[in-house]
Amino acid sequence: MKPHEGKMNLQDATSIRNQQESRLLCLPAEIRLKIYGYALGGLEIGIMSGRCWGKQFVIVARPANASRWEMTEHLLALTASCRQIHAETKLLPYSMNEFVGSRNYLKPLITGGLFDSALVLVVPKIRVLIGCCDVEEHSGAPRLERPLADMLLVFRGLPGLKRVTLDWDGQLWGNDWEYLRGCLLKEMKRAFDLEPRLDHIEVEAVNLRHCRVEEC
After folding, report:
1. How far is the C-alpha of 13 from the C-alpha of 178, rounded, in Å?
2. Cα–chain-centroid distance for residue 71?
3. For the whole model, what pTM was predicted?
4. CA-based nearest residue to 213, from 13, 82, 70
5. Residue 48: pLDDT band by 50, 70, 90 thresholds?
6. How far apart are CA 47 and CA 74, in angstroms?
7. 148-167, pLDDT tens digit by residue?
8. For the chain, does the N or the C end have fewer beta carbons within 10 angstroms?
């Protein structure tokens, strides 16, 4: 027997034992998927500055609409518990949650510098935190700065994407949020309406200062 064959046999035996002994793996697949969803879904995953920890950025998470962010050391613990559970759950933290961050911190997400690029392809929702530095005045109206507009164009290549939200945190243009919101939506639709295949992507602009990913 070749060494790698012995290793594979050991892994197969371990998998079979896990299936026989694990109460979770003994459940029907549809029940397991519901449990996985409760454990791994319904979250906002934030990408923020990590300079307080000596890192370029850190990943934090919280239940949707909660106020407090937590570090995510244990977020993927379930996916690493055994080979079968890993196979069944490896995409769920990415396909069931919303990713939140400013343009600079979302860049490594969409370029594959943060996660494997195959995982990014299943991300369904992205919320971009923007402010005055992300817009410019054009003919008296606010327009997205080129770096942010280019990022929206990159979003078009994510096949799993269903919603993009711009979360404004800055001075209101003429103290009129509805006017600013309308301009932002127009800019977003201009980026996403270029191709009929993208008409499934929902765009939104919000002003939720209480939902900030705070810089340390």
Report:
1. 61
2. 15
3. 0.82
4. 70
5. confident
6. 16
7. 999 998 888 889 999 999 99
8. N
